[in-house]
Amino acid sequence: MKSIRELYRIGTGPSSSHTMGPRRAAAEFLRRTTDAASYRVTLYGSLAATGRGHLTDRAIEETISPTANVSILWQPHITLPLHPNGMLFEALDTMGNVIKEWRVYSVGGGALAEDPADGPLTIDIEKDSDVYPLSTLTEILEWCRRSGKSYWEYVEECEGPEIWPFLNEIWQTMRAAVERGIDREGVLPGPLGLRRRAASYFVRATGFKQNLQSRGLVFAYALAVAEENASGGVIVTAPTCGSCGVVPAVLYHLQQSRQFSDSRICRALATAGLIGNIVKHNASVSGAEVGCQGEVGVACAMAAAAANQLFGGSPAQIEYAAEMGLEHHLGMTCDPVCGLVQIPCIERNAYAAARALDSNLYSSFTDGDHRVSFDRVVQVMKQTGHDLPSIYRETAEGGLALDYTPPPNN
Questions:
Q1: Residue 48 exposed, middle or buried by CB count within 10 Å (0-12, 13-18, 19+)
Q2: Would you tell me how many other CB atoms lie within 10 Å of the CB of residue 121?
Q3: Alpha-carbon distance values, 375 to 235, 319, 358, 380 (Å)
Q4: Residue 339: its pLDDT value, please?
């Protein structure tokens, strides 16, 4: 299993698979083809269906156009064999002949993959990045029981002590996104005319008594980060851009309300990263492949595990919190209105943050013993995602996205 450095990525929104991944792919192809006169990029499947709303074309053009002209072709009804988010990059000579081509897939969370027939991928993954010998939570839980250690200590053992400066940078970026987001007002970009709500939620929450205030603040923090993502701000994939508000909201709220140190927050981030990594390794975090359960559902599991650890949960209780966070998002579709990471994505971040805290609380009342393991839920999530019709997997052709008309004058 790969490093959690490949799960947590600092970048700009609105989409890790549709914006960050294509931008990185364009930069890599540009590096490989310095002798090209121009470029042609064909987008397939989900990338073509919702790419305009996710700014896929802009990400590619901004990367390539300072060097050479680039044209983009859209093929929403053709899906390449490996993944719904397929791209074909072509380098052209002065006569328009193809001198080099490259098929690549944006597989979620900003990560890229190639068809094995096209050769090994050299962008994301270094030769020695398989750092985790265990790749299921059942195996790691057994390691914790034998060693007496917790999940974050397993992360440190596999990643080395240098993981802590990295996670501290991740946390500072998350925290900055929350604090920017709760101070900004106005309308988000795009045809929906959707107003930012984090600032007003934050103000209103401070007027409630403590029991309601707590939930209102969590909503505000999640909205803040999700709105920053929707406006193209700097965020951290956790595990994706579309679900980037859940983990920061929970951890920021707990640090503000319980005065947890940055060091303890980073250890919670290590555990959350391990949870997300297990899903990414054994299933998917791509909405185009498994629906929103792989984005917001996984983010909820990550945040639930992190919260449970902060409150002193045992490894078994942490596993149970993560299991509930994912289980109760099974079957969630990915149907972004107008192909934008706004409706229903932003609200889903707020609700998932609240569910993460509920999962933590529920697990805290138990001894961690339960019937359905986290790994079993991951398997079910993967199969459920593959069983979903394509119209519910980030194509904007079904569900909430179907026949939606933007408000007038927007």
A1: buried
A2: 16
A3: 28, 10, 20, 9
A4: 87
> What gap in Å lies between CA 166 and CA 188, rounded to an integer?
31
Which residue ranges in the chain fall short of pLDDT 70? 117-129, 406, 408-410
Backbone phi, psi, residue 402, to 5°: -70, 125
Are residues 330 and 365 in contact, defined by beta-carbon separation less than 8 angstroms? Answer: no
- Tens of pLDDT, residue by residue over 227-274, are 999 999 999 999 999 999 999 999 999 999 999 999 999 999 999 999
pLDDT at 82: 87
Q: What sign has the CA pseudo-torsion 340, 347, 205, 308? A: negative
Give the integer Cα–Cα distance in Å for 159 and 372: 29
Spatial neighbors of 29 by CB under 8 A, at least 6 apart, are 39, 89, 91, 102, 104
Which amino acid is it at 122? Answer: T
User: Rounded to whole angstroms, how far apart are CA atoms 126 and 153?
Assistant: 23
How many other C-beta atoms are found inside a 10 Å radius of the C-beta of residue 129?
A: 13
Give which of 277, 268, 263, 347 is closest to 304, Cα–Cα: 268
Distance between CA atoms of residues 121 and 115, nearest Å: 9
Kindly report the average pLDDT of the chain as a whole number. 93
